[in-house]
Amino acid sequence: MVRSVADRAFLPTKNLLEEVGDMMILTGKTISSALRPPYPYGGEFVSQFLFAIKLCWFPLLVSTVAFGFGAPGLQAANFLVIFGALDRLGGFFVLASIREFAPFVTAIVLAGVAGTAITADLGARKIREELDALQVLGVDPVKNLVVPRFLALMLVTGLFNIYALIFGVFGGILATLTNGAPLGPFWATFFTNASTTDLWGSVLKTTLFGAIIAIVCCYKGMTASGGAEGVGRAVNQAVVIAFLGVFAFNYVFTQTLLATHPEILVPR
Amino acid sequence: MEWLTVPREWLTSAGEIAKFCGKILGQVYSLKVFRFFGETLRQSGILIVSSTIVIWGLVFIIGLQCGTEGAYFSRSVGAPSQAGVFAAWCDLRELVPYAFGYMMAAKVGTGIVAELGSMRISDEIDALEVMGIDSVLFLCATRLLASWLVLPFVYLAAIGAGFFASYLAVVQQVGDVSSGGYFLVFWMFQNPPDLVYSLIKGMVMATVVVLVGCYYGYNASGGPVGVGTATAKSMVLNIVMVHLIGMLGTQVFWGANPRAPIGG
Amino acid sequence: MSEDKMQADDATRVASVVDDRDDEFKWHTGKQLPTGVQDAIEFVDVHKAFGRNKILRGLNMGIPEDKISMILGPSGTGKSVCIKHMVGLLYPDQGDIIVHGKSVPMMHDDELFDMRKKFGVLFQDGALFGSMNLLDNVAFPLRQHTDKGEEEVMEIVNRRLAEVGLTNAGDKMPNELSGGMRKRAGFARALVLDPDIVLFDEPDSGLDPVRTALLCELIQEIHEENGGAYVVITHDIMSARRVAEHISVLWKGRIVESGPAEQLFNSDNAFVRQFLAGDSQGPLGME
User: Fold this and answer.
1) Average pLDDT, chain C
2) Are C93 and C225 part of one and the same domain?
3) What phi and psi, each to the nearest 5 degrees, are found at residue B221?
4) Chain A 23-62, CB below 8 Å of chain B: which residues?
5) Spatial contact of C133 and C197, defined as CB atoms under 8 Å apart
6) How far apart are CA A59 and CA A53, in angstroms?
7) Which long-range contacts (CB under 8 A, 24 or more apart) does C175-181 make?
């Protein structure tokens, strides 16, 4: 009885830890085989890069404008109108869009759209035994499949962050105009508050988000089990783990950035 | 007219999804679904056991984030004691619904697609039909009703988790404002209608996620690979829908009226 | 290869396709040898296409009452599509399906669900519900459609499970069973409402020859006990020889020939002879 209760509580935890460990190992393998010659993954890298852009540009456009207009735009404008300081909305958008929401929405969309597609694709190859066939043919699946996806997703997420940032700020402009305020003060406070630290922090952060998403989704795809539910279940787990991983990492990163670069907090 | 084919396909599938969802909603609304109330309760149980913890977890992390940013932003506009306003609005009005919607889409939505999709391709849905059971009613309507029974409570508890996390971040971690001062502002800037609006936002997201999941799962084809593809596709639609609902909710509930206790 | 020659090649290829189309149905005599009993299910000039892919092309077929009928045919000729039409899971683009004198495509939903209670269907992999154990799976139709008490339900379920030889496996989950056991459990579930018509979708797929023989024997035994029209879809000639009392040979969405089993095995139609002998020489090629 006690034994079975303990099993019920600990087995899932143990499995989870094992999986996290396996993902770490995959990360290590991916990085080392990305760096070591030969480099056969160029073509696949380009096609994955274009594939991710093709899938994500539209959902990301809708999501960032909607998010930027609603959450930081309307609500923060309401907040600032109370203090009679709507011109500060620009400054707020530095904090909101660059530091938080652009990376965050980019990560959600990339994990939900490109990540799930990667898991579904690799899962399909796994259960069609293509991965086994590759290994039999002497081709390393990590080097030829995981590495290009890993690099492509990192690059795409970093670039899309800037794209998301632009459209997020566009949402903010919409919100300012909705409130009937001129745009001049918005830009003024935006540029006085914007710092390069914020920008590189944001891009670095999203690049690492891309790495997390790629590893989680590749891992889940490559370990998809057979059976009718296998691939679907793999996608399900991949996206849940990717979300949790991205947000936990985001929290740690923001804390570290704020602690090590206190100057970005100084109001201007 | 080659360039028109893609939008036309979107329109066709949007129409199909709407028709399917209308059928499910009709079955719940006409109370037909109570024929399978046992199955509904079973689905509710599954929802509670498998999904609540992750939803609360994500909301908690986001609550921490809201608190941190709120504390620093209020400090930068020279009103550190007003961090509670930021936290109250950020949590209740925006990020808790979003976090809830994201996790619903990720955990529950794709879960439904995987489950129903595998039932479809292993002929279990056809088996239900030939046993003379309305499979949409048995599989989809029960899931929708189960989510309506359970999720309001999950959502309210999630708000609690978000509030707690923001409190930790603002008062315990950054500490510009005392606990009492924080709560004074925090509770002043929200009232029961805000909570109801937030709940409505969350529930609309949940309903859409469940319906989209049912559609993609029920209509999956092409073996296990097809189920995987359907799961991935459902996630795309869900993410866009969650963001649109979030924006529309904000616009409708708070757009014209900030519902703040001071000022104009 | 020069351009001219390529064009010439294309031309001959097109010509040969056209020729084939003219000949496509030359083996389809559509002969329906008399069976001496009434038909339980009738297909009347049924057409069905998925997109551009035409599956059924003017199918006329009768399934006799109270016999084990087999629908035989090469893979991809629309055998499973046939089954789905019988129970109203698919609707024909054109034509009619008549079950016990009533047209299936014309029924509205409630009638259709009622009609389906007359059917028992054994799906390819059993289609057991993954979330329930065997007992609950087999009891499911009884609990949904009858007012029987729990004791009575369990008695019927146990009897049916015993019939298919799964007496002690009642509390197992479907994924703990072998393919053959899943099929037998699916069989028990199909029988539990005492159906008038039982449909089998490739009962031999994925089973070894011995298990296939055992399953065929089981089908025969249970048919002797319960009667009713049994329809078996397969491309396996061995099981056809064992259990079939009536055979319909389906190819390219039409019946080639149908009739009592002994007569078909002695048919002089070249396609039927080739298919029933499993010969590589004859009208049917790889295509």
Assistant:
1) 82
2) yes
3) -155, 170
4) 55, 59, 62
5) no
6) 11
7) C175/A227, C175/C130, C177/C134, C179/C125, C179/C206, C179/C207, C180/C207, C180/C211, C180/C215
Residues spanned by the domain of C273: 27-118+195-279
Q: What is the CATH number of the domain that holds C274?
A: 3.40.50.300
Q: What is the pLDDT of residue C17?
A: 44
With a CB cutoff of 8 Å and minimum separation 6, the contacts of B87 are B66, B67, B70, B163, B166, B167, B170, B182, B186
Q: Which residues in chain C touch residue B131, judged by CB atoms under 8 angstroms apart?
A: 116-117, 140-141, 144-145, 193
Structure tokens at B160: 């609690």
Pick the closest to residue A202 from A124, A264, A152, A125 (CA basis).
Answer: A264
pLDDT band of residue B142 (cuts 50, 70, 90) is very high
Tokens of A255: 């804390």
Does one domain contain both C203 and C82?
yes
pLDDT at C12 over 60: no
Alpha-carbon span B154 to B44, nearest angstrom: 11
Domain contains C7: no
Residues of A in contact with B98 (CB under 8 A): 67, 71
DSSP conformation class of A263: G
In 3D space, the residue among C242, C239, C240 whose CA is nearest the CA of residue C258 turns out to be C240
Domain boundaries defined on chain A: 39-263
Q: Is the separation of the CB atoms in A141 and A135 below 8 Å?
A: yes
Contacts of C114 in chain B (CB under 8 A): 132
Q: Locate the chain B residue with the closest alpha carbon to A229.
A: B118
Report yes or no on B20 lying in a domain. no
Residue C199: phi and psi, rounded to 5, are -110, 135
Residue of chain B whose Cα is closest to the Cα of A84: B263
Per-residue confidence band for C15, with pLDDT thresholds at 50, 70 and 90? very low
Chain A residue with CA closest to B221: the answer is A228
Based on the domain organization, do C100 and C185 belong to the same domain?
A: no
Over residues A219-237, the mean pLDDT reads 87
Decide if C286 is inside a domain: no
C141–B123 CB contact, under 8 Å: no
Whole-complex ipTM: 0.87
- What is the CA angle B105-B111-B112, rounded to 5? 95
Q: Which residues of chain B neighbour A202 with C-beta distances below 8 Å?
A: none
Q: Give dist(CA C252, CA C258) in Å, integer.
A: 15
Query: Which residues does B contribute to its contact with C (CB < 8 Å)?
Result: 118-119, 122-124, 126-127, 129-134
Q: What is the DSSP secondary-structure string of B219-256? A: T--SHHHHHHHHHHHHHHHHHHHHHHHHHHHHIIIIIS
Residue C14: the pLDDT is: 43
In which band, very low, low, confident or very high, does the pLDDT at B256 lie, cut at 50, 70 and 90? low
* Same-domain status, C48 and C172: no
Question: Per the domain annotation, does C123 fall within a domain?
Answer: no
Indicate the pLDDT class of residue B97, thresholds 50, 70 and 90: very high
How much is the average pLDDT of B71-78?
75
Is the pLDDT score of C225 beyond 90?
A: no
Please, how many CA atoms are within 13 Å of residue A124, restricted to the half-sphere of its CB?
15
pLDDT for C81 beyond 70: yes
CB atoms near residue C205 (< 10 Å): 15
Considering the domain architecture, whether residues C142 and C241 belong to the same structural domain is answered as no
Say whether residue A112 is in contact with chain B using an 8 A CB cutoff.
Answer: yes
Residue B158's pLDDT is: 94
For B25-34, how does the pLDDT look when each residue is reduced to its tens digit (9 = 90+)? 998 888 888 8
